[in-house]
Write a structure and sequence with these properties.
The protein has 461 residues and is α+β, with helices and mostly antiparallel strands. Helix content is 23%, strand content 32%. It has eight helices and 27 strands. Helix 1 runs antiparallel to helix 7. The chain is globular, with a radius of gyration of 33 Å. Residues 441-451 have a biased composition (Basic and acidic residues).
């Protein structure tokens, strides 16, 4: 009896740390509920979809940075429709976005899979277009571009084969620059022509260094047959002269008016103006319905661009105004109902994006302030959602009160208290579940031995 009692007291001693840690954990758990916003996932980027009815958000709270959690929200009910994950390299980040076919494509990079072109549909379906066929240098983000609704990639495959790829209308096409007949010699290096993706040229282009020391210029986009446009630099021709000649040739090949490009004009008060790239001459200001000063130009699709700026010549005295301009038809659509909700600084932020698909009345916005918005220019309805508001949608009512869901979310956070509590609970379980009849069994054996082999009491004379 004494041995059984000693065993019970030992178990009670093991319970003391569990009781104390449970008390500390309960208090920590209540603090977690009270400050739930500090523990909810943070969103790195957000984009509107489906005419503003849905929103997609990307969170990279994984401690090793090897994946993004992707949330699809219903903006009407402010709830999560679907959650999925996409792979990424350690701190590789997200690539430039492109809206296509009522969805959005966001590139990521993974050491094993290479470049991944993640195509998110508004229905919640996710496709990966590259399927391990796209390899690019380690500084991958400098080789992926978003231009007029397309995604453009320039890279080198493991077999030292240089290529240019394009994603348009949800379809991936790739051209191997080493294909016979495309270039007069083997390509050994591909570089972006500086500024050509920023509206310095009608068509973006790459400079290709060849094995025979010559240089070729190739278009950054593909035609309807999936082919590139190519121009070989002449022997005594300067680099800039070759680029201007290629600009004119590529503009004609792809249907852009090289004599009437819309560009930002650096002269005060900086109204967007027409530019004749063939003659290198500035033309008149673009005749927007109302003057747009300190204007910024954002390319949208093959025919449209956004002219956004200030209502006043000094932007500090005005509000933000803007119009979508169709370069072919000359028509305007008013986007001011969205833009007036922004600060002028938003237009100058390098992370600010505007997207519009040709034939749609919806203009989407993503800002460097981590906000997302849209405007339906047909009915003049707009909405901008701050990032912290969207992050609040990830916290349900059950997570703000004592419940199994909130406790499980708290436990998943880890921490010293939870880990120590779990260790001591395990110790107690092992202690209680181990066999308890061993001491009495040993005693019975000893008793049996005593009965079978009585103690020697000396010689029996």
């Amino acid at each position: 009896m004494k041995k059984k009692r000693a065993l019970s007291l030992a178990n009670l001693v093991f319970l003391i740390p569990v009781i104390l840690l449970s008390f500390f954990m309960w208090n920590d758990y209540k603090r977690y509920i009270e400050n739930i916003d500090d523990y909810s996932p943070s969103l790195e980027r957000t984009y509107m979809l489906d005419g503003g009815k849905k929103l997609i958000g990307f969170s990279n709270d994984d401690r090793f940075g090897e994946q993004y959690d992707v949330y699809l929200f219903d903006t009407g009910t402010e709830t999560i429709i679907k959650k999925t994950t996409i792979h990424t390299n350690f701190q590789a980040g997200l690539g430039p976005a492109a809206y296509q076919q009522e969805g959005i494509i966001i590139p990521t990079y993974d050491d094993t899979l290479g470049l991944q072109l993640n195509y998110f549909h508004s229905t919640g379906e996710v496709e990966e277009l590259a399927q391990g066929t796209m390899h690019i240098p380690s500084a991958w983000s400098s080789n992926v571009y978003s231009w007029r609704g397309r995604l453009i990639v320039a890279g080198e495959s493991p077999g030292s084969e240089w290529y240019v790829a394009q994603v348009k209308d949800g379809k991936l096409d790739k051209v191997n620059l080493g294909e016979k007949g495309l270039l007069p010699a083997r390509p050994v290096r591909v570089d972006e022509v500086h500024g050509s993706f920023k509206n310095d040229q009608a068509v973006p282009m790459f400079s290709v260094s060849l094995k025979d020391d010559r240089t070729a210029l190739v278009s950054g986009i593909l035609d309807k047959k999936g082919d590139l446009s190519v121009l070989l630099e002449k022997k005594d021709e300067g680099t800039f002269a070759a680029q201007e000649r290629a600009g004119a040739q590529f503009a004609k090949a792809f249907g852009f008016n090289n004599a009437k490009l819309v560009r930002e004009n650096g002269n005060y008060p900086e109204e967007a103006s027409f530019y004749n790239a063939n003659e290198k001459q500035w033309g008149t200001a673009v005749p927007t319905p109302k003057p747009v000063y300190q204007a910024r130009v954002f390319l949208l699709n093959d025919e449209e661009l956004l002219i956004a700026g200030s209502t006043a010549k000094d932007e500090l005295n005005g509000t933000v105004i803007g119009y979508v301009f169709n370069e072919k038809s000359g028509k305007f659509q008013d986007a001011t109902v969205l833009l007036e909700q922004l600060n002028y600084e938003n237009l100058e932020n390098s992370e600010t994006e505007f997207h519009k698909q040709l034939g749609s009345d919806i203009l989407y916005y993503r800002g460097g302030d981590l906000a997302a918005g849209y405007v339906d220019m047909n009915i003049q309805k707009a909405k901008v959602l701050p990032n912290d508001q969207v992050e609040g949608w990830m916290v349900t009512k059950n997570e703000t009160k004592v419940s199994m869901q909130s406790f499980w979310n708290y436990a998943k956070q880890g921490g010293a208290i939870i880990i120590n509590w779990a260790v001591w609970v395990f110790i107690n379980l092992v202690s209680f579940l181990r066999p308890r009849n061993r001491p009495s069994h040993v005693s019975e054996i000893k008793d049996e031995k005593n009965e079978s082999w009585p103690a020697y009491s000396g010689p029996d004379y």
